[in-house]
Automatic annotation (TrEMBL):
GO molecular function annotation: hydrolase activity
The UniProt record lists the keyword Hydrolase: yes
Organism: Candidatus Spyradosoma merdigallinarum
Keywords assigned by UniProt, alphabetized: Hydrolase
Name of the protein: NUDIX domain-containing protein
PANTHER family given in the database record: ISOPENTENYL-DIPHOSPHATE DELTA-ISOMERASE (PTHR10885:SF0)
């Protein structure tokens, strides 16, 4: 984990993609978000080994959804980076899990861009991690673990506590034919 790294930089460079997720150019984070250009992101849902799902409370310094609950780990895919590379990088940057110390996260599904996802093509992964997590304070205010049924109840009763992208990811995750999450 990189200490004292800001929550985000408006100068980060992302690949801009077309409606088929093919790279058509590059732009800064600020421009991509301002112009609502299609781009890429990853979400990783971490299970704590006790049947709970770890959620992050996003840092108040984040430019989108500050202070809201979201997936365990999430981030943009940098220009020239694959979704898989981004997932491993984000696990290290946000949760302190060095790529060498963890198995590759398991790909679950992809989602098309929409307003709720911030015009991002999403790839969603899962990782079972019984070991310690070290949240990056520039990115995450807190990590909280809940049984999936409790998250279901919370999203129904108080959806305003969650990022819109999380609500879409969680709904699809819970509807997946693979069954109950997490698998223990």
């Amino acid at each position: 984990m990189k200490p004292n790294v800001p929550a985000q930089s408006p100068d980060e460079i992302f690949d801009v993609v077309d409606e088929n997720d093919r790279v058509v150019g590059r732009a800064t984070r600020a421009e991509v978000h301002r112009r609502r250009l299609l781009h890429r992101a990853v979400h990783i849902v971490v299970s704590d080994g006790r049947g709970n799902v770890v959620l992050q409370k996003r840092s108040l310094a984040k430019d989108t959804c500050p202070g809201l609950l979201s997936t365990s780990c999430a981030g943009h895919v940098d220009a020239g980076e694959s979704y898989e590379q981004a997932a491993r990088r984000e696990l290290e940057e946000e949760l302190g899990i060095p790529a060498a110390d963890a198995p590759a996260p398991e790909f679950l599904f992809a989602m098309r861009p929409c307003r709720e996802t911030g015009w991002e093509f999403l790839r969603v992964y899962r990782l079972d991690r019984a070991g310690p997590l070290t949240p990056n304070p520039a990115e995450i205010d807190a990590l909280l673990a809940f049984p999936p049924a409790e998250i279901d109840a919370m999203t129904e009763k108080s959806p305003e506590l969650f990022s819109e992208s999380f609500l879409r990811v969680w709904k699809k995750l819970r509807a997946a034919p693979a069954g109950e999450f997490p698998r223990n």
